[in-house]
C-alpha cells in the first residue's frame, strides 16, 4: 500500500518514447519506476526488426541483461511490469524472485517453469481479444498454470484492440482500451 518500486521492461520495439510515457504515468501516480534498456539503445519501427535483433542477441543474453538491471533493487521487493516481450521478461523474473510484490503484464506472457511457486503473488494481465500472439487456448492454459504456482491472477481482455494497444505511436493503439488499462493497472498497484 504506498509507492511501489516498479521495474518496467520494453517491448520488441525497444525503449521507445511510449515506454518513457508509461513510466511517467506510473511516476505521476507516486511510484518509483526504472526502465532498463535491454536493447542497449536500439529501437525499431517494426516488430520484425525488433525480433531479428532479439534473436541476434539471444534469449539468454537478454535475460542476463534483465537480471543485472534488477539485481541492485530486488531486495526492496519489486513490482515487475512489461510490454509484450517485456511482459514475458517481467514474468520470468518475478517467478524467480521470492521478494516480488506484484507482476503487471501488458500484452504478453511467458512459459511457466513446471516447478515455479510463488506465495500468492498478485498478477494482472491486460491483453487484446483476440491477440495474434496470445491465443485463447494459450491464455486459458497460462491462467491455470499461474494459479498452480500460487499466484493470484486477473486477466483483462480488450475486444477488438490491437496487440500493443497501449502504445500511442503504433497502429495498434486503442485509446479507450488504453485508458481503461491504465485505470485498472493503477488501481492494482494501489492495492499492493
Total count of strands: 6
- Order of secondary-structure elements: EHEHHEHEEHEH
Average pLDDT, all residues: 97
Instruction: Name the structural class.
Output: alpha/beta
| Main sheet summary | 6 strands, parallel
Query: Which parts are unreliable, with pLDDT below 50 for 5 consecutive residues or more?
Result: none
Task: Please state the oligomeric state of the protein chains shown.
Answer: single chain
Distance between the termini: 5 Å
The helix content, as a percent range, equals 40-55%
Quote the beta fraction.
Answer: 15-25%
Give me the side-by-side strand order of the main sheet.
2-1-3-4-5-6
Shape: globular
Radius of gyration: 15 Å
Number of helices: 6
Describe the structure.
This protein has 192 residues and is an alpha/beta fold. 40% of the residues lie in helices and 18% in strands. The chain has 6 helices and 6 strands. It has helices at residues 17-28, 47-57, 59-70, 85-95, 136-149, 175-191, and strands spanning 5-9, 32-34, 78-83, 102-106, 122-129, 152-159. The chain has a 6-stranded parallel beta sheet, with helices on both faces. The radius of gyration is 15 Å and the shape is globular. Residues 6-191 form the Dienelactone hydrolase domain. One of its GO terms (molecular function) is hydrolase activity.
Amino acid at each position: 500500500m504506498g509507492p511501489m518500486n516498479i521495474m518496467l521492461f520494453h517491448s520488441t520495439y525497444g525503449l521507445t518514447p511510449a515506454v518513457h510515457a508509461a513510466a511517467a504515468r506510473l511516476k505521476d501516480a507516486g511510484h518509483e519506476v526504472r526502465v532498463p534498456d535491454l536493447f542497449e539503445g536500439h529501437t525499431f519501427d517494426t516488430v520484425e526488426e525488433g525480433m531479428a535483433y532479439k534473436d541476434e542477441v539471444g534469449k539468454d543474453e537478454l535475460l542476463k541483461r534483465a537480471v543485472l538491471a534488477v539485481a541492485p533493487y530486488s531486495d526492496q521487493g519489486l513490482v515487475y511490469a512489461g510490454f509484450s516481450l517485456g511482459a514475458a521478461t517481467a514474468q520470468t523474473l518475478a517467478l524467480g524472485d521470492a521478494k516480488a510484490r506484484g507482476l503487471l503484464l501488458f500484452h504478453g506472457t511467458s512459459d511457466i517453469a513446471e516447478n515455479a511457486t510463488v506465495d500468492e503473488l498478485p498478477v494482472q494481465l491486460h491483453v487484446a481479444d483476440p491477440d495474434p500472439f496470445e491465443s485463447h487456448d494459450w491464455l486459458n492454459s497460462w491462467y491455470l498454470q499461474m494459479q498452480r504456482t500460487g499466484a493470484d491472477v486477473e486477466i483483462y481482455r480488450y475486444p477488438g484492440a490491437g496487440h500493443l494497444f497501449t502504445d500511442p505511436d503504433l497502429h495498434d493503439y486503442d485509446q479507450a482500451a488504453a485508458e481503461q488499462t491504465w485505470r485498472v493497472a493503477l488501481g492494482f498497484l494501489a492495492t499492493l
